[in-house]
Amino acid sequence: MENKPLMRVYEEDEIIMREGESYGEMYKIISGSAALYLDYGGADEYLIGVISAGKCFGEVSLLAGRPEQYTVVAVDRVMVMAIREEQFEGFIKDNLHNTIDIMKNMADRIVMLNKNLGLIADELYESYKDGENKNSVTGHSDISEKIKMYRIMCLTGQNDFLGKV
Questions:
Q1: CATH number corresponding to 6-94
Q2: If we measure between CA atoms, which residue out of 129, 163, 160 comes closest to residue 144?
Q3: Is the dihedral angle over the CA atoms 154, 99, 75, 7 positive or is it negative?
Q4: Secondary structure (H, E, C), the chain
């Protein structure tokens, strides 16, 4: 098996990774841009953000051994470097500068997801405070507190709540 990362090209609107699937790879964008979505193509599709050259994705799922948390779609023609799980350690050793890039990307993603959760929490709070969804949930402060708890657990690395919705 070749030990060098593979270069792949994806055309505009082509799916690179699909939410819920496992790939055993992480990707670094060499050129082009990609969009990250939750529930891509579904009724609740949500654009998380757009990433471009130098940014990585799939690293969290690779390191955690979990399925992808979002779908990645090429915005334009995208070239990526695909690093398989068995190549990851050697890739980091041979490309130390990428370690910092990966850490920065993961930190950016955490900040971005945390901000999105904050916006959702604020939106839910305002919705329930104004009496819009009175029949569906009792006590908007309870929802706000639960969201805060999940945000804190996520940021502190406590993941025993995953899958318990």
A1: 2.60.120.10
A2: 129
A3: negative
A4: CCCCCEEEEECCCCEEECCCCCCCEEEEEEECEEEEEECCCCCCCEEEEEEECCCEECHHHHHHCCCCCCEEEECCCEEEEEEEHHHHHHHHHHCHHHHHHHHHHHHHHHHHHHHHHHHHHHHHHHHHHCCCCCCCCCCHHHHHHHHHHHHHHHHCCCCCCCCCC
Q: Which two tokens stand for residue 17?
A: 């990774």
Q: List the domain boundaries for the chain.
A: 6-94, 110-155
Q: Which of 105, 13, 100, 7 is nearest to 52 (CA)?
A: 105
CA dist 21 and 30 (Å) reads 23
Return the structure tokens found at 96: 């130390």
Query: How do residues 2-42 score in pLDDT, each as one tens digit?
Result: 578 899 999 999 999 999 999 999 999 999 999 999 889 99
Give the amino acid at 29. I
How buried is 30 (Cβ within 10 angstroms: 0-12 exposed, 13-18 middle, 19+ buried)?
middle
